[in-house]
From TrEMBL:
Gene3D superfamilies: 3.30.300.30, ACP-like (1.10.1200.10), alpha/beta hydrolase (3.40.50.1820), N-terminal domain of ligase-like (3.40.50.12780). PROSITE patterns: CARRIER (PS50075). This is AMP-binding protein. SMART domains: PKS_PP (SM00823). GO terms for molecular function: medium-chain fatty acid-CoA ligase activity; phosphopantetheine binding. It comes from Sneathiella litorea.
Length: 875
């Protein structure tokens, strides 16, 4: 097989080795064998040459499908260049495609209603009929030309450099991009695909993918014939016909696009006897063209008692990965372990990224196709110096498994927040009432784009839009929650079985933001005073008056600093201290006003990202007491990683001004155990928050509970560097004062006394506050209330004297020093008596929590989380 130069060589090989073996099958027909297929190829060559067509002449093939279409495609590609087309296209589409692809002739099923004939006639393209020579035999067809030339040409064998097939991608452009594949590129591809799927001459593939698409033509038909097996193509995605054929053909593989397997799973209950009989021969269900939802995949594996295998590839690259067949290892959500010398994940600069970090999936350019035809702009976009860029986003894990997270070009830009639609689809599919889900963009006058969701509900079940949104809040961060949910009986799909996201708004005629706003205003004419005040506050904070009552704060571009400003203004204007998680649970004006009216009390535990079944991660607030700054970090972690921030307040009463870090840690420990009663615990914090997390780890240890992970984000111990005795203080400043010019000496003394005065006032307030917290009779309106969280926490840090911790920790250290002392982090070497791992992050002390540094921080934190979680299962 390694000596094959053209697909003709493949046909000849199997015709010689297994002349009577079945190659093409059809419903209630006798099979066509390899010997007969070889004769058909020869006859096609003579007929095409008689009409003046041969090597590299592009012949459009249009057929209704089945074995007859497969035979026609093979007969043409072994003598000329085949260009398969969807027969349902319009005359205008055919006209443009025929021109762009330089079509020389149209081979079309006789009597097939198609506007391709009209386009061919306008362009003066020869028309050749495909005639069913023997209806009793699958694939028995012949050609009959209506425009036979006066003088034909001598048939000539195709060569390795000749183009076998011309595909059109199903991309986002109106007519796709042209992908020509010569025999020398196509043959190694189909060989590789057959090896990845373990195809042999004993396999019978029941195919329900369109043959005008690369999935049916190359991954289905060519790969099966290369392996010497038999190919049974089903017409028109007819699932009922598939089950009829399943009874007679005894296939080893059912191959189809991911969307058609939804129908197969649903229809299987109508054919229990056929399904039961098929189990004895089936060895896999092979899906492609997109990701099959895990819920459907698991149901199919249960119904047919055979594995579902998902292949990832394209016309440009062929298969890049494929889920393994048992006993090969598999991981839920992954498309398998690709060849690490061929498939890479890179950043915007084209450099490979660490494991678990998302990036674009690429292959070395020499392993891809040779470029789009007559499209230099597309080639510049797709090819860089080293890579062919797939346009898909994904990541590799530590075991080399590839996970696809979505199409980069399909990302929805919701007010600057990039949303991968497949993430929203998969979250909706987790609800047992949802059968299909596709998210899509909506135009929005403020955000640019908003997100909507189209769903099909399972038969016999029901769910409201509000209930589904509440469900999604447990699986998505707030700015990914769709603003509109549309319920349909069937989701519109393109010719390859995929929903076209950018067209769904038009296809479904979804209410746009402009009309939605006017309807909303009519409903809300009787707004409460608090709602009006809330709306004014939002407008002031976000700097725009164009805000609807149901617009999401973060979707409108609100950031963590603006969120803090929002809460402070609400406290001042409305006299209410709100829990910080309200922006994550109820991030609209309407929902926030409702919760205020209901008198919701606040908690120090903020579920920034509560979804997922991994052990929760608890991060303590920085010195200012707020946790909204952790939002970006949480967003970049695994989708199923719960993330809780510990906020410095308890309720509307000022009982959260702790007199020491030890008091603070005691309270936070109890709050954390309300969420997670037993360890192992996962703790962390940025700067000051790391000190409290360190204390918490010690306290959990004293209770016999394990801290599996302690993450210190650029946490240091300033008291170790700044504490000096009074004598040392006097000596240091005397030396400085003595060297000063005479006129500057009084000012220096005054400044030192002023600093001492400020420090003493803060210390007195702190002492007073500690007493008042213990004695309810002391007024809360005392001067102690004036002191800020940051001042209190800074004073508590100054008197904090840490003791060693018998456990492990990870110090995420910034490259830019946080202090004039270069060894400011060194104290941790003495305090961590277990293993201290140090991980350097670009940027400075504040910038570590901002893009682009926070995404790298999250990737490294994810690595350690995954590593520890494998070793320490949650209780």
């Amino acid at each position: 097989m390694d000596t094959f130069r053209t697909f003709n060589d493949v046909i000849s090989f199997w015709a010689d080795k297994s002349p009577k073996a079945a190659v093409l099958l059809g419903p209630d027909q006798i099979p066509l064998d390899y010997q007969s297929l070889q004769k058909l190829v020869t006859d096609f060559g003579k007929e095409l040459a008689g009409s003046g067509f041969g090597r590299n002449d592009r012949i459009a093939v249009i057929h209704s499908g089945g074995a007859e279409m497969a035979a026609s495609l093979i007969g043409v590609c072994c003598n000329a260049t085949v260009a398969p087309f969807n027969p349902a296209m319009s005359a205008g589409e055919f006209y443009l495609h025929f021109q762009d692809k330089k079509i020389k002739a149209l081979a079309i099923e006789k009597d097939l209603p198609s506007q391709a004939r009209e386009a061919a006639e306008k362009l003066g393209i020869a028309i050749i009929d495909i005639i069913q020579a023997d209806p009793a035999c699958a694939g028995k067809v012949r050609l009959a030309s209506e425009n036979a030339r006066q003088s034909g040409i001598v048939p000539e064998a195709v060569q390795a450099d000749d183009v076998l097939v011309v595909f059109t991608t199903s991309g986002t452009t109106s007519y796709g991009k042209i992908v020509p594949l010569p025999h020398r590129i196509a043959l190694p591809r189909v060989k590789n695909m057959g090896q990845m799927l373990n195809f042999t001459s004993q396999d019978c593939i029941l195919n329900i993918m369109p043959l005008f698409h690369t999935g049916g033509f190359a991954a289905g038909m060519l790969t099966t014939i290369f392996s010497g097996g038999s190919f049974f193509p089903v017409k028109n995605n007819d699932v009922d016909m598939l089950f009829h054929c399943l009874r007679s053909s005894k296939p080893t593989v059912i191959a189809g696009g991911y969307t058609v397997f939804h129908s197969i799973e649903r229809k299987a209950q109508d054919y229990p006897e056929i399904v039961q009989a098929a189990k004895s021969s089936l060895r896999m269900l092979r899906t492609g063209t997109g990701h099959l939802d895990q819920k459907i995949a698991e149901s199919l594996e249960s119904i047919f008692e055979t594995p579902v295998v998902e292949a990832y590839g394209s016309a440009e690259t062929s298969f890049m990965a494929c889920t393994g067949l048992p006993p090969a290892p598999r991981k839920t959500g992954s498309v398998g372990q690709p060849d690490r010398n061929r498939v890479f994940v890179v950043d915007k600069n084209g450099d490979p990224v660490p494991v678990f970090e998302r990036g674009e999936i690429v292959v070395p350019r020499e392993t891809a196709f040779e470029g789009y035809e007559n499209n230099p702009a597309a080639n510049r976009e797709a090819f860089s110096e080293r890579w062919y860029h797939t346009g898909d986003e994904g990541y590799l894990d530590e075991d080399g498994f590839l996970f696809i997270t979505g199409r980069i070009k399909e990302m929805i830009n919701r007010g600057g927040i990039k949303i991968i639609p497949t993430e929203v689809d998969q979250a909706a599919m987790k609800h047992d009432a949802i059968r299909e889900a596709v998210s899509f963009p909506l135009p929005h006058k403020t955000l640019g784009e908003d997100i909507a969701l189209c769903v099909v509900v399972e038969s016999g079940k029901s769910i409201s839009e509000g209930d589904l949104k509440n469900f999604l809040k447990n699986h998505l961060i707030p700015n990914k929650i769709p603003s509109r949910i549309v319920f349909v009986d069937e989701i519109p799909k393109g010719p390859t079985g995929k929903a076209q996201r950018r067209k769904l708004n038009q296809q479904l005629q979804v209410l746009t933001q402009d009309t939605a706003d006017s309807a909303s205003l009519r409903k809300d004419e009787q707004l409460t005073a608090d709602t009006l005040k809330m709306q004014n506050i939002w407008q002031e904070v976000l700097g725009t008056s164009d805000i609807g009552l149901d617009d999401n704060f973060f979707a409108l571009g609100g950031d963590s600093l603006q969120a803090v400003d929002l809460f402070l203004r609400i406290e001042k204007v409305l006299g209410r201290r709100l829990p910080r998680d309200i922006l994550f649970e109820a991030g609209t004006i309407r929902e926030m006003a409702r919760l205020i009216e209901e008198g919701l009390s606040s908690s120090c535990v903020v579920p920034i990202q509560p979804k997922g079944n991994r052990p929760p991660l608890f991060f303590i607030h920085p010195i200012g007491g707020e946790v909204l700054g952790y939002r970006e970090l949480a967003r970049h972690l695994n989708d199923d990683q719960p993330f809780y921030g510990i906020q410095q307040f308890q309720s509307n009463e000022n009982t959260s001004r702790y007199s020491s870090l030890d008091d603070m840690a005691d309270y936070y420990l109890d709050e954390i155990r309300q969420v997670q009663p037993k360890g192992p615990y996962y703790l962390g914090g940025h700067s000051f928050g790391g000190l409290v997390a360190f204390l918490l780890a010690q306290k959990f240890s004293a209770l016999g509970e394990e801290t599996a992970l302690l993450a210190l984000l650029d946490t240091y111990l300033p008291s170790r560097k700044r504490y000096v005795s009074p004598a040392q203080w006097m000596s240091l400043h005397y030396k400085i004062w003595a060297d000063l010019p005479l006129l500057e000496k009084p000012g220096y003394i005054f400044e030192r006394f002023r600093n001492i005065s400020i420090g003493l006032k803060k210390l007195i307030k702190l002492k007073f506050m500690a007493v008042s917290n213990r004695d309810p009779s002391i007024s809360k309106t005392s001067p102690a209330d004036v002191i800020s969280y940051q001042d209190i926490n800074a004073l508590n840090v100054r008197k904090f004297r840490p003791t060693p911790y018998v456990g492990n920790a990870i110090l995420f250290r910034t490259e830019l020093p946080v202090s004039l002392h270069p060894d400011v982090h060194n104290e941790w070497q003495n305090l961590i008596e277990g293993r201290l791992e140090i991980c350097d992050i670009p940027g400075g002390h504040v910038q570590i929590m901002e893009e682009p540094n926070v995404s790298l921080l999250a990737a490294k934190l994810t690595y350690f989380l995954n590593k520890v979680q494998r070793e320490k299962p949650s209780a």
